[in-house]
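Here is one chain, start to finish.
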Amino acid sequence: MIRWLVIGIGDIARRRVIPAILAEPRSRLQALVTRDPQKASAYPGAEVFTNLEVALQTTPIDAVYIASPVALHAPQTIAALHAGKHVLCEKPTALNLSAAQSMLDAARAHQRLFAVAYYRRLFPKLLHARQLIADGAIGQPLLAEANCHEWRSSDAPDGARSWLFNPAMSGGGPLFDTACHRIDAMNFLFGEPTRATGLLSNAVHHTPVEDSATVLIQYPPGIHATVDVRWNSHIDRDQFRVIGTEGEINLDPLSGPILRVGNREESLPTHANLHYPCIENFVSAILDGTPLACPGEQALWTDRVLETVLYANQSRT
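Its structure:
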């Protein structure tokens, strides 16, 4: 039985992470860390703490899920690893590559598992797409394209996730929040990137973080990938396709069940709770030695791309 500590009771934790832990048969929600203990009233069986160090020292825990803002990922992960706990962290890994590397170093030093919750790696259709590419279904892959567009404003009436507009807490706008998932999906398909660059803009919203980001990545042997993410479009898009010398794989929308190859269409739905396979995989890794869906080493590939894009844009200003 894996005893979990969850740090943060925000939207993702309430809707996905905690329900996944409660549903996973080899897991128990042991404790919660939150600034507002009232949020924990929905989980009467869990111990509640406002201080992470106290929680780590006083209650039996095997694994920690970090569901706090990005700025807290590194210090909280390192504290948990130092305490001998396995850590599954929300995306992206950290505010910068140096902090992300320190998390990986701590995991290695303490010989504990460290993974990042890039749950799309466990989408049945993304797994199938990777196999199709390996089998040569579209010939040699040449180009991958992803677009994720939505309207998100800092003056949202409910103030939901307002910390995303504070770069000191979030690291950036859609580049950190939504592009990271698409970049990781491409890493999952093609491996470690060899080059990256990109553009950041505030075309509509003049906020401290960008409202649009376009990333260009190269993978061996010469595969190009583009990721365009926006918080300034009233037309929602969630597009993802891979083009090869002999055809293409279309995954539009990426979060939906449909995969198209040529004239064939397959329905490969996700789990009803997108985080459940991620929790299940992490528990299996601890108990059975199952390979992690996204080990820390691979998560850092995305952090390297994010930092490269940020640096390229800072050097232009």
